[in-house]
Amino acid sequence: MSATAATGTTQVRGACPHDCPDTCAMRITVTDGKAVSLTGDREHPYTRGGLCVKVDNYLDRVYSPDRVLYPMRRTGPKGSGRFERITWEQALDEIAGRFRAISAEFGPEAVMPCSYLGTQGILNGLNVGDPFFARLGATIAERTYCDSGSCTAYTMTIGDCAGVDPESLVHSKFILIWACNVMSTNLHLWPFVAEARKRGATVVVVDPVKTRTAKAADWHIPIRPGTDGALALAMMNVIIEEGLTDDDYVANYTVGYEELAERVRQYTPEWAAEETGVPAEDIRKLARAYATAQPSVIRIGVAVERHAGGGQTVRALACLPGLVGAWRKPGGGILQLPLWAFPVNWGAMMHPEMLQPGKRIVNQYLLGQALTGGLDLDPPIKALMVYNSNPVVVCPDQERLIEGLRRDDLFTVVSEQFMTDTAQFADIVLPATTQLEQDDIMFSWGHLYITYNHRSIEPLGEAVPNTELFRRLAARMGFTDAVFRRTDDEMIAEAFDWSAPAMQGITVESLKEKGWQRLNVPPADQYAPYAEGNFPTPSGKVEFKSSIAETVGNFVVPLFRQGSSDHQPGTPVDPLPHYVPPRESARTNPGLAARHPLSLITPKSHAYLNSSSANLPLHRRVQGEPTILIHPDDAAGRSIATGDDVRVFNDRGSFVVKAKVDKSVLAGVAVSAYGGWRMHTKSLSTMASLNPTAFADLGNAPTFSDTLVQIEKA
Known about the structure:
Blueprint: E1 9-15, E2 25-31, E3 34-40, H1 58-62, E4 72-74, E5 83-85, H2 88-106, E6 111-115, H3 130-136, E7 140-142, H4 148-158, E8 174-178, H5 182-185, H6 190-198, E9 202-206, H7 212-216, E10 219-221, H8 228-241, H9 247-253, E11 254-255, H10 257-264, H11 269-276, H12 280-292, E12 296-300, H13 310-324, E13 333-335, H14 346-350, E14 361-363, H15 367-371, E15 383-387, H16 391-394, H17 398-405, E16 411-416, E17 428-431, E18 440-442, E19 449-453, H18 466-477, H19 488-494, H20 508-514, E20 516-518, E21 542-543, H21 547-551, H22 590-595, E22 598-601, H23 617-623, E23 627-630, H24 632-636, E24 645-650, E25 653-661, E26 669-671, E27 707-713
Helix pairs in contact: 2-18, 4-13, 8-11, 8-12, 8-13, 11-12
């Protein structure tokens, strides 16, 4: 089943484009060139025909009357939303002309891209613009929005290994879900968890909030934001002190045990109880159950890295399975990102050899500072090109970012499907295709299947895929390198190392025919590749004491920075896991906490994928009006009731939202799901105006959950 014929009815195989672990297989019914229905593929062994609310009505996105379908040029003040239609020729001429002029006057580093994973396809996703901006000589954008610190910590400990096959969780006896609301953000994993429970497994959730997932678990452990590392280290303390380790596994397949045992001696359950708010006896109970019910598995979410000590938290969590020998059987270990199993040919997408040595790097969290002089950049940023992202909503420092986007001397190009908060400030807006209008091939960071996405309809209006956008821009800039002349089919042929053992039996042709195929790895019932070590670390073992930390220090995986290894943080890293407390808390910053006493966490929305779909009527109706969840004790002291408009603020900014008073959140914690657009708020601001720009301890990860605020009636 491939691209549709012009007339008649046919079914086309596709793949959800979202930055989500599930990467659902889809089937699109097309009649006379128009998509008339979209469903999940019931034959897929993992996604099993189910689609979540984020994509179930994807046709509303495709055929929305608000789609950007033609190139547009700004006619009013920046932010006014006033644009006129122009031709592609006019748009390309203006962009190329401005890029050339800016490069000639200031140097090409005055141009900066800004992008992430508005689509997750290998062709049109994270790296689609990298060769163009490398050839231009532009500033390199470091994109550490999600899992960068986790990846650095994980590779320091167990290497870039796939971890646990999610389908093998049916064999787990103890499932510890840590900082992950599976039912909202990893929906298709839950049936495997449920099957494990049916077979007798215990499910425990560690989260400051009693989420949908926590409510469905056997045990919810509420924890103060940013203190997860203390709990993990205290678990190690109990496991070692009470002799619950798998001594054979530790002796043969780990390194640094003696040093680790000495290190965690200080992290007693009583100490951790003071840090985390989790009673010491609960910590002991958790540690004992996790160690003795084998195979046990830890599913970590992206939120676990989003505080000052997020990296060391992941280091501790990645050590735990090695201590108890959880890796020995299918369903045991840690589940972070199975994407490590996919032999994606990232180099063919990024072409890092085109980068000029020493080219400067600017992290996108610092975009507000970069655009307003706060980083003292020389040359300053004079042109910004945004694609696959909506930085006004997803970047911190919102007020300063908007100040920068309003600059008359900043030339901004945005490629988009809708007139987002960011597009409102553009000089040129370009029309981007949806997943139904483009070909792509998908890895997954939540299961072990490759999925092929066939274009099912012709692009609406004059929208183009990202691949075509950069072909056109490169041609207009006079770039003649072969990489800029590749067709989508040629890029697909380069997307994987097809000779890798994991790809045996998988070809482009078989994927086009079947729609999806499982990697050539053992079936879930047999998947235990680290039963006898064989970790992709320098030692081949679990490194409780990390040799990478000792020799390399802090680093960002080059994939997050256009393939560049230059200007790595390089700061020293203690090779043993340790506790790094949150920067903004009553214990570490009592003066700040006296003015802003509540910890703000901003989890993923149930109906939006980051900011995607937050403009669509059905999604907004399902998500409901934006709220902030606070505990009754915190509400009473502020005379706040459910439904009140409240102002949430700190020294960085503020936003106005409806209060929801509920005991499902810890006292001292406030929760507001992010992703809603600024233009839909009463205050023309979101929680992004409150988040800090400080990095976590590893991988330049964000610290979104390391934020103190105050709340008052608006």
